[in-house]
Structure formats: C-alpha cells, structure tokens
Design a protein that fits this description.
The relative contact order is 0.06. This protein has 15 helices and 22 strands. The chain has 537 residues and is an alpha+beta fold. The longest helix has 36 residues, at 78-113. The protein has helices at residues 2-14, 18-25, 28-32, 34-56, 60-74, 78-113, 117-125, 132-160, 164-174, 182-204, 208-218, 226-246, 250-263, 268-289, 291-294, and strands spanning 316-319, 322-325, 346-351, 355-360, 364-369, 378-381, 389-394, 397-408, 411-417, 423-427, 430-435, 444-449, 452-453, 458-463, 467-471, 478-479, 487-492, 495-499, 504-506, 509-510, 522-525, 528-534. The chain has a 16-stranded mixed sheet that branches. Strands 16-15-17-18 form a four-stranded mixed sheet, with no helix packed on it.
Length: 537
C-alpha cells in the first residue's frame, strides 16, 4: 500500500497536480521511505517553481501558500528562504503602491470637490483605466464639468442683469468658487470686482452692517487680492472701535477710525465719527480731572466705564460657519439631558477618574491657532503663525492636508495618508499625535501636545466613525480600569446607544435601549461613571 501511495503521488506530480501530491507526500510513513524522500525533494522543487510563477504573476497569496508547502516538505532550504523574502518584498511594494494610488485618488476627488477640475483630471490620467473606484471618480469629474459649465452660463446671465447676489448664489451652489482658469475664472474675477465695489460703497455710506454681510458672501469665492484684505481689516477696525465706544473708551477708538479713513477716504461719516469720539474722549478727561475723579476708587478705570472682559473659558470655538461656546455656563441646552434627543455632531464624554474627550462625528476636522483667520474647528492656544491642518476620513483611511507644509514623522508634507502613531508637527511648540488604537475600528484619537485647548479639561480628541470603545485594554479608545470588559458606544438613528455585559443606570434609573443614553445625565456601568454632554454644558 505504501508503494502504491508513493506511485500515486508521483503520477500526480508528473501530471502537475501538486496539491494532490502534497496531501499524499506529507504522510509520516512516506517521509521515512527512501523512495518517498526522493519524491518529496522533487515535489518541493516543483512547489518552489510554481511559487515563483505565482509571484511573477502578482498572485501573492498562492505564492505564499506554495512557499509554506515547500518549506513543510523540504525544510529551510536557501531557495525557499529567497522565495519567501521575494514574496514579502513584493507584498510590501504592492501595499505601498495601493496606498499611493488611494492617496492620488483621494487628492483627485478632493480637488474636484474644491472646484479644481483640471488638477483632478490630471491626477486621474495617471490612475489605472480599469479600476472601478477610479471610474466612479471620473464620472464625478465629468458631471462636475457639466455642472460648472451650466453654472457659469447662468451666473453670467444673472450678472448681466445686475443681480450679483444671484450670481454669487449660483457660484456657491455649483462649488466653482476656487476655479482659476477658463470661463469660471473670468466669471469669478468679474463677480469679485463688482462685489468689492459694492462693499466699498456700503462702507463709504456708513452701512457697516450691509458691508459686513455682503463681504461674508464673497469670502468663499476667494480671499486673494489686497482690496478684500483691506476691506476685511477696515470692517474689523469698525467693530473694535464700536466696542471701545460701548466700553466707555472713545479715546481708544480714535486711531482705529483714522485707519478706516485711510482705507475709505470718501467715507464722510468717518469725519463726524472721529470728531465725536475726540470730543467724548476730551469730556471723559475733563470729568476725570474734576471732583468726580477725586471720588473714584483706585480700582475705577481713569477713562470712564468699561465692560468686563470675557473670561478665558467663555471664548468661542469657531466651527465652520457656526460659533460653539464650549465652556459657557449659560449656553442654551436645546433639550440637553432629555433622553432620546438627537445626537449632536460634536459632544463631550466625561469619564470619572480619566478625563474629558471631545468627540467629532464629522468626517473632517480642522485644527489651528485660535487667532487664525481661517476659522478652524478646533482652536488651540498656540503661535498665531501656526498653520491650520485638515484631517479627513475617507473610506476608512485618514488623510492630512495643509496649505502650508507641516512635518509628519520628520518629513515635510502638505498631504499625507496617516497611520497609527504618526506625529504631526505644526510648530516647534505644537504637535499632534495620531492614533488608531483598534485595527477593527476606524475611530481615531488625536493627542495635542505643546499647546492648550481653551477647555483645559479636554484630554484628547476622538474622531468617531462607528463606535467608541471604553475599557482596560491598549486597543480601547478610552482606557479605564473601572470595567473588566470593553464598553461600546455607537450612534444609531440619531441616538447614542451602549453595548456592554454589565447593567446600565442613567441617573439611577434603568437604561432603555429604544430611547438611547440621555445627554447631560450621569451614566453608571458597573464601577464606571461618566457623562455624555453637549458642547457648552
């Protein structure tokens, strides 16, 4: 029977049925027989040859399988070691190529969404023609070009009729505000030119409110040009001067009003405003020098009444087009604390004994200094020249983008596919550590070092995708020893739900999974105690 099985294996080897021969030859009695040993040697070499053929055809998994079988038959032969090294190198190169292709595709998609259609098209020309994802983006590019052409025609018509607001609305709806060439570029230059004239006219007539509102409409069309910068700064000086006047400091408003006059010399109302502010400042000085000044306490300011300065914790964090006060005690709750309320896109998880975590459900966030004019979603108290970076999640991957080069793991970059542990250096005193603690979860953590958020209790930022894991292990997003098994928080139908082996109490009452976790109320899971709160609570 043994000789018969050896002959069967030899026949299978001769016919090229290597897997069948391998199943027979790995038996222990065949390996001990001298005819079986010769068979094993020939079969191992045949496996190596087939593995090399699979490797040459980029079939890495079959090649690795053949290599493992050859090693099981022939041991650690030099040919097998070389084949395994070649397969591993090929797999690493293929993964890098796929990552580069994914980055190129993401860049093309982002350029298309930002209105840079030609740049996106050139990136797609370098992509493989038979890739399904690439073909979808090519279809998006074709649709965007048709939409841009139609929008340019409609906006030109509105502009010809003198309806500049309708033209701006069409441009913003079609997302062609960043185009620099072709018909769209000419259109944008015309719209910006007419819009700047209108803002300047409103400012010269003293309609600061109208000028500010209209300037906000044209800012998304591009901030390039000295006139836009001058008008933006002039309106900011007007607001500061008004604040000084309201605080009883007309003398501090005078230099600001004179700066506005230099930008808008035809604004006659400024002459009267400067004169009034000057008279008011002199009147305050006269009162301060008279008997009333003698009755003032040492703590009373010498230039009249002043409004209280805002507390540092009451400063606003700017998030896209909305202001979110992340520490004000009198913020509107909008049903805060009511179970079943809609889960906001941004909230805070406060875990007793661990700290507070700012959670973003958005697919992209921006981080930058609080003094930046770009209005980042996450403000940090850092050097004003610190660049603003965007971190975006696309199909489970995270990408870093910045208009100014930043340092990622010691290398300068404006775009980068992020991996777990990457260190992003924004300035010598501000850096961000990117973490993907759990390979099975695409929820990421950001740890900001060297700079402070304007809420000192915030420990880390969580970019939530599907879930947040709270537990004692290194692959949990929030680590705590108060639970033995991980607790999973996940969003479903606008509710925040919880999955755990232990009982859940919300303000001492049992948890109703059909309603969801209540915001602003204490949640107890075994020994774990935490609060999920809206920003502002």
């Amino acid at each position: 029977m043994l000789i018969l099985r050896i002959r069967q294996a030899e026949c299978a080897l001769a016919d090229g049925r290597l897997d069948e021969a391998f199943e027979i030859a790995q038996a222990e009695d065949i390996r001990r027989h001298h005819h079986g040993q010769r068979l094993i040697g020939r079969l191992a070499r045949a496996m190596i040859q087939r593995g090399q053929e699979n490797l040459a055809a980029n079939r890495f998994q079959p090649a690795l399988t053949d290599c493992n079988k050859a090693e099981k038959l022939g041991g650690n032969l030099p040919e097998i070691t070389q084949l395994r090294a070649a397969i591993c190198d090929a797999i690493v190169k293929d993964q890098k190529a796929r990552q580069q292709e994914a980055l190129r595709l993401a860049q093309a998609k982002q350029h298309i969404q930002d209105g840079w259609l030609s740049v996106g098209g050139r990136l797609l020309e370098e992509a493989p023609p038979d890739d399904g994802h690439v073909n979808l983006v090519r279809q998006e590019l074709a649709a965007a070009r048709l939409q841009a052409g139609d929008a340019v025609a409609k906006a030109q018509q509105a502009l010809g009729q003198g309806d500049i607001e309708e033209a701006i609305h069409i441009i913003q709806e079609a997302r062609i505000g960043q185009c620099k060439s072709g018909g769209a570029g000419d259109l944008l230059r015309q719209v910006r030119g007419q819009a700047i004239q209108r803002v300047r006219a409103d400012l010269e007539q003293g309609r600061i409110d109208r000028a500010q509102a209209f300037l906000q409409k044209i800012l998304p069309l591009g901030k390039d040009g000295t006139e836009v910068a001058e008008l933006t700064e002039a309106l900011a000086w007007c607001r500061q001067a008004a604040q000084h006047v309201a605080a009883g400091q007309p003398g501090a408003a005078l230099p600001l009003l004179r700066k506005v006059k230099a930008v808008c010399p035809l604004a006659r109302w400024l002459d009267a405003a400067v004169a009034d502010a000057k008279r008011a400042a002199e009147a305050y000085e006269e009162l301060d020098a008279g008997p009333l000044g003698l009755s003032m306490t040492d703590e009373t300011p010498s230039q009249g009444r002043r409004v209280a300065a805002p507390r540092p914790q009451d400063r606003f964090v700017v998030c896209s087009s909305e202001h979110i006060n992340i520490a004000s005690d009198d913020a509107t709750t909008n049903g805060l604390g009511e179970a079943g309320g809609s889960l906001p896109a941004r909230f805070v998880v406060q875990v007793d004994g661990v700290g507070s975590f700012l959670v973003f459900r958005d697919t992209r966030i921006t981080v930058g200094p609080i003094s930046s004019s770009v209005r980042p979603m996450v403000n940090v108290l850092a050097d004003p020249h610190t660049p603003v970076v965007m971190i975006e999640r696309m199909e489970g991957d995270y990408f870093l983008r910045s208009q100014t080069p930043v340092e990622v793991n010691g290398q300068s970059a404006t775009e980068r596919l992020l991996a777990d542990g990457d260190r992003i250096v924004l300035s010598p005193r501000c850096s961000i550590r990117f973490h993907l603690p759990n390979p099975a979860s695409t929820t990421a953590l950001l740890t900001i070092a060297g700079a402070r958020l304007n809420r000192p209790d915030i420990k880390q930022l969580i970019l939530m995708d599907r879930d947040i894991l709270i537990g004692p292990y290194a692959n949990d997003h929030i680590r705590t020893e108060h639970v033995k098994d991980p607790v999973a928080l996940f969003a479903q139908n606008g509710r925040l739900l919880c999955r755990t082996k232990e009982s859940i109490l919300v303000d001492g009452h049992s948890f109703d999974p059909t309603v969801g976790l209540a915001l602003g109320k204490r949640i107890e899971i075994g020994k774990l105690s935490m609060v999920v709160a809206r920003l502002g609570e």
